[in-house]
Every structure is written in structure tokens, then in C-alpha cells.
From TrEMBL:
This is Odorant receptor. GO terms for molecular function: odorant binding; olfactory receptor activity. It is a multi-pass membrane protein. It comes from Stomoxys calcitrans. InterPro entries: 7tm6_olfct_rcpt. Keywords: Cell membrane, Membrane, Olfaction, Receptor, Sensory transduction, Transducer, Transmembrane, Transmembrane helix. The chain crosses the membrane at residues 46-66, 78-99, 154-177, 294-315, 321-341, 384-412.
Amino acid sequence: MSQMLKALLLEKQLENNKMLNIFYRISFMTGVNVKYQATFKDPVKLWNGFLIIVSLIGLSAQYCLVWNNRSEPFAESADAICTANQAWISILKLIYLLFVQHEFYDLLHTAINGSLLHDLGIFDLAINSKQYLLKEIKTILNDSWLHIKHQLNFFTFSCMMACGFYMFSCIFANYYFTHIQPQNFTLQLPMPALFPMWHDYGMTWPYYPIQYFITGVENSICGMCAVCFDGIFIVIVVHCSALLEILHKLLEHVCDEEIPQSERVKYLLCCARLHERTFRYYEKINGMYRTPSLAQCVLSMLVLCVVMFMANVGLEEDITLFVKMLCFLCAVGLQIGIYCYNGQKIITQSEISPVAWYSSTWYNESEQFKYIVNMMVLRTNRTLYMQVSGFTTMSLMTLASIVQTSGSYFLLLKNLSGMD
């Protein structure tokens, strides 16, 4: 029967790799190879480094624009500040991935292959409920990967929508004001930026294409790096949650009649082994995302603040700017929402664990059985949290706090703008 479990996991592996094909391509475009095992000297990392350098040049041009508009109302620089913060998030993630993408590969393919369920041991025991347990495991895995698919698709669409609007709206605007309705206007780029040495050349060759390329790379990095870095988080955290759910389902049947009395201690030990594997997997995920998530939370809070401010004034001043802010609100809000929503799934499942271990009729079992249950109840009594660098946790409560804090800063910014 263990061969049937391996066949199930192999079937899921093929389905999962096929489902993640677009995700693999987007990741490769950012210089991150998570489909195959990469060494530290992998040539794809040269592309990663090139994108980082070009994005930093584009970021410098954005700060030139902010400095040039320092005497103007805040609304003139809000778009540049908002996109620059998002660019910082993506550049920091790219730099991080440059050095540790092999570790992300291990975490991702542990989820894709379902390797933590290999050699589980339960299906080698003399029990009568193997078919039923296999069906339950398959249902949980199917539901978790369907959830992963929906999250990835919606998040990818949101990021590409925001980046695509910035990427192509500037071309139409420049063409319209240059050829259809000529008038004095500021040359637009995929990201609001100012290159002082080329500012007076307008759309002439090759100055505008160079500016477009630099800011276009920076713009695309904002979307593709978010999909890559946060997409990995979606896959591995939802899978970790599914492993806990599988464990709880197995514990429901530990005292069933289909499991002979002589096999129950072995069955319980297999469940304890699965818990240990899942806990180690959770620790690796938490260690990889603990520090980067702090930068994500802080910068996302600032972006949300500026977005709410510009959405408040944009409809009256510039409908294009208003649409841009809505795109960023959707993308940035989803970024922090992904961390908190999926982090909450881990919290919810880990809170169930002590009850799942204690709910069996352990009082009718052997002393060894009781001892294992007592030890596991003590071990699982501590709730698992995806931490944000020791300051807070990834949870729905944290998400509400970030939105509330962003709203407070928005009101402060609005009042200061009114004073000006």
C-alpha cells in the first residue's frame, strides 16, 4: 500500500509542475531558477545581478524626480515615492534570492514532491483503513493545491495588471500629446523618473528608448519579483498547513476498530514522526521569511498610505493617476495580505493540534500509548506563528493593524497637505 501512496505523490508532482509552468517562467525572467537545482555559480544569476543594477539606476532617477519636485505639492511626487518604495521591496528580494535561491528550491520542491509524506510508515502497518486514509490524504492535497492555484493566478494577474498599465500607458500618452494633440507636457516613462542629462532630448533616439528600457526593467521587476518571491511563500505555507491537516485527519482514526490494538502504538508513532517533519519544515520556512517579511510590512504600509492619499485626490486631478493608484493598491495590498492570510492558516491548524492528539480515547489504551499522547500534547501546546523578525506575526490581526496604521498616516498626510 505504501507503493500506492508513492504513486499518488508522483501523480501530484507531475500535476503540480505542470500547474507551475508559468510561475517557473516568471521566476526565470527575474534571474531565479527554482525549477532545477542551481549552484552558487549558476549563469542565470548574472541576469539577476544585471536586473538589480539596472533597477538601482532607475531608482536613482526616481529620487531625482522627487528632489526636483521638492518645492511642489506632495501630490506631484506621490507616484514616484509610491513606486520607489515598491521597487525597493523588489530589489531587496532579488538580492536575497541571489544568495539563497537553492534553499528556496529545496522548500518549494519539498512541497511539489510531497516528500515529507514519503516513508510515512502508516501504510506498511496491518490496518484495514488504508484505502480510506489514502483517499483522505488525496482530498486534502487536491484542495490545498487548488487553493495554491487560485492564489497564484489572482496574484499574478494583479501584479501584471499594475505593471502593464504603467508600462504601456506612458507610450499612448506620449504619442497622443506629441502627434494628435501637441502641447506642453512632461515626458512619461514606465516609472515616474527624471534623468537630468537626457531630460531636454524628449523622445529622440536613442535617449528616450534608453530611459524607457531602464524604467521598464525596474517596472517589470516590481511585478515579476513579487510573483516569484511571494509565490514561493504561497506554495510552501499552504502545503505546510495541508500537512498539519493531514496529521489531524490521521489522528481522528487512531482508535478506530479498523486499526488493531497491537498496531495503534506504531500508528501513533508514525503520526508523531509526521509532526516532527512538518515542524522542521515550518522552522525552515519561518527562518527564510522572518527577516524579509519585516521590510515587506514596513514598505507596504508606506505604499498603502501614499496610495490612499492619491486615491483621495487623484479622481479630481488626474484619472490616470487614480487608476495607477488602484492598481498598486490591489497589488501591494495582496502582497501583505498573502503573508498574513496564509500565516493565519498555520496558526489555525497548529491551534487544533493539541485537541487532535487529546481527542482520542487514549484512556482505554496502553501505558505507552498514553505516554506518547501526553508528550505530543505538551509538544504541540505552543502555537506556531510565521514571525515578522520578532516584532509581530503574520496573522489577520497583523493585517488589520497594518491597514489601521496606514489609515492613520494617511489622515496625517492629508492634514499636512491641507495645511500647505
